[in-house]
């Protein structure tokens, strides 16, 4: 009499695969809110970085050109809709920042900032921008009288 060896095939059964997919779906569902919060916080940080970059550009251009350079919101005093760096006379736009996207709010932002030929900001002694996503992330961008921007991970 002959014996036939039963070969067991390697791999996963359908039940094992379904259980694994279900567990993965549960883990993703639990991680999604944290991931959204992370992305929102990164958007605030990136906007603060762009603002500091343009404040520095405006200051450097004012010194280089020996004239006033202005940083102002692009649309109706709403900094979250973008901003421009420009030379008032003759009217020349040096850089235009697009909208920051949804979720980044500017609180207590100044109407505009002008840098003089010496690189100092004119007007108010200290300018402050409070950038927030409304819940968990705040970044304070401040500009001291010498024209140097600083950031802090807190509300202003």
Can you walk through the features of this model?
The structure is a single chain. The chain is an alpha+beta fold and 156 residues long. It has a single domain (14-152), classed as minor pseudopilin epsh domain (minor pseudopilin epsh fold, 3-Layer(bab) Sandwich), CATH 3.55.40. It contains one helix and eight strands, in the order H-E-E-E-E-E-E-E-E. The chain has a four-stranded antiparallel sheet, covered by helices on one side. The longest helix has 52 residues, at 14-65. The chain is elongated and about 105 Å long. The model has no long low-confidence stretch (mean pLDDT 85).
How many DSSP E strands?
8
Strand order of the largest sheet: 3-2-1-5
**Through-space gap between termini:** 89 Å
Q: What order do the SSEs take from the amino end to the carboxyl end, as H and E? A: HEEEEEEEE
CATH architecture: 3-Layer(bab) Sandwich
- Please give the count of helices: 1
> What is the C-level CATH assignment?
Alpha Beta
pLDDT averaged residue by residue: 85
Radius of gyration: 27 Å
| Helix content class | 25-40%
- What structural class do you assign from the helix and strand content? alpha+beta
Give start-end ranges of low-pLDDT stretches: none
Task: Give the tally of structural domains.
Answer: 1
């Amino acid at each position: 009499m002959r014996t036939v060896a039963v070969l067991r095939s390697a791999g996963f059964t359908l039940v094992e695969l379904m259980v694994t997919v279900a567990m993965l779906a549960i883990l993703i569902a639990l991680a999604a809110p944290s991931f959204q919060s992370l992305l929102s916080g990164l958007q605030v940080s990136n906007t603060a970085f762009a603002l500091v970059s343009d404040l520095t550009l405006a200051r450097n251009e004012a010194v280089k050109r020996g004239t006033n350079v202005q940083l102002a919101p692009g649309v109706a005093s709403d900094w979250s809709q973008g901003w421009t760096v420009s030379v008032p006379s003759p009217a020349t736009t040096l850089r235009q920042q697009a909208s920051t996207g949804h979720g980044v709010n500017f609180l207590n932002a100044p109407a505009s900032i002008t840098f003089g030929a010496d690189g100092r900001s004119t007007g108010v002694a200290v300018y402050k921008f409070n950038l927030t996503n409304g819940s968990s992330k705040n970044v304070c961008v401040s500009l001291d009288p010498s024209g140097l921007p600083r950031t802090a991970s807190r509300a202003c």
